[in-house]
Amino acid sequence: MKKIIWPGIIAGVAILVLGMLVSYVFMLFPSVSADYNNTNIMRQWQDPLMTLFFIYPFVFGIILAWGWNRSKSLFKGSAWKRGSNFGLAVWLIATIPGMFITYTSMPYSFMTIISWTVGGLINLIAAGWIFAKMNK
Questions:
Q1: Is 81:70 a contact under the CB 8 Å cutoff?
Q2: CA dist., res. 85 & res. 5, Å (int)
Q3: All residues at 6 or more sequence positions from 68 whose CB lies less than 8 Å from its CB, including other chains
Q4: I need a surface site. Which of 28, 33, 34, 67 has the fewest CB within 10 A?
Q5: Cα dihedral sign for 128, 98, 23, 119?
Q6: How far apart, in whole angstroms, are the C-alpha atoms of residue 129 and residue 118?
Q7: Can you tell me the distance from the alpha carbon of 32 to that of 49, in angstroms, rounded to the nearest whole number?
């Protein structure tokens, strides 16, 4: 458990912080800001359910840590390379198809989808680096 819980929590902190930074940068695009402020497609921040939004990075981090622990032997090279390759693999498997279906089935702007795609790549590579360093 020590190889999963602590790395997962630390990755969760990184995902939360990096996600907020990426969102802040992309909020400079009017279409992204409009999507986030559109209460027809997003919950308002005042909704009590939105507090659960901040638990997501930690749940995600622990699940990713479990995935890393099960697959780490597949990734060779330095910790940076192994972590980057893990993050890239998860991004290609999960984020790209998820963002494709989101764009084709929901009324989000293309720039919002790009922001989530870029943010996912940054978060997953950072999490991979953390796992490769903490759980060899």
A1: no
A2: 21
A3: 7, 86, 128, 131, 132, 135
A4: 28
A5: positive
A6: 17
A7: 22
Quote the distance between the C-alpha of residue 126 and its chain's center.
9
Read off the amino acid at residue 97.
P
What pLDDT is stored for residue 2 in this prediction?
Answer: 86
DSSP summary character for residue 48: G
SS3 content of the chain, % helix, strand, coil (to 5): 80, 0, 20
**Identity of residue 106:** M
Closest CA to 124 of 96, 86, 97, 98: 86
CA-CA distance, 69 to 93, in Å (whole number)?
A: 17
What pLDDT does residue 120 have? 98
Tokens describing residue 37:
């402020």
Summarize pLDDT for 77-103 with one digit per residue, the tens.
999 999 999 999 999 999 999 999 999
Give residue 45's pLDDT: 86
Question: DSSP E strands: which ranges in the chain?
Answer: none
